[in-house]
Write a structure and sequence with these properties.
The chain is α+β, with helices and mostly antiparallel strands. It contains 4 helices and 5 strands, in the order E-H-H-H-H-E-E-E-E. A 5-stranded antiparallel β-sheet has the order 1-3-4-5-2. A hairpin with a 6-residue loop joins strand 3 and strand 4. The longest helix has 17 residues. This is MaoC family dehydratase. Pfam families: MaoC_dehydratas (PF01575). It comes from Halopenitus salinus.
Length: 146
């Protein structure tokens, strides 16, 4: 189990990669973000994107899964205050491979609860061409070592 005290400011975690299946990308859009640029190939081809693109929320969900599997799993994380500065930089398309990294920016002990601390981290992800596709910062709550 990784606790607040085990996390070093400045450390980086390679979160691994994920290749986007078209069916999963469009299924997500149909259910949660049914905009034509995510679902209608003909219409999407006529946009500035030149074809279907993934919902930004799909991209964020894929990266959240990579963050859980690559960093939060087997940790004492019990929640987060939210996501700050979420930016979608380059559209993701079916077949793209997303490679994510997480960097620890700050660690702050709680001043009101001695059983926890706050970890500020930044997630960035790139596609197979090295283009940044998403970035966010978030502050998570980690329990301290008992």
């Amino acid at each position: 189990m990784r606790y607040y005290e085990d996390i070093d400011v400045g450390s980086k975690q390679d979160l691994g990669s994920y290749t986007v299946p078209k069916a999963e990308m469009t299924d997500f859009a149909e259910r949660y973000d049914p905009q034509p640029i995510h679902l209608d190939e003909e219409l999407a081809a006529e946009t500035i994107h030149g074809g279907l693109i993934a919902s930004g929320w799909y991209t964020a969900s894929v990266c959240m899964r990579l963050l859980v599997d690559g960093f939060l799993e087997d940790s004492s994380a019990v929640g987060a205050f939210g996501v700050d500065e979420l930016r979608w930089r380059t559209p993701v398309r079916a077949g793209d491979t997303i490679d994510a990294e997480h960097r620890i920016l700050d660690a702050t002990e709680s001043t009101t609860r001695d059983d926890r601390g706050y970890i500020e981290g930044e997630l960035t992800a790139h596609n197979q061409d090295g283009e940044e596709v998403i970035e966010w910062r978030a502050t998570s709550i980690f329990l301290r070592r008992p």
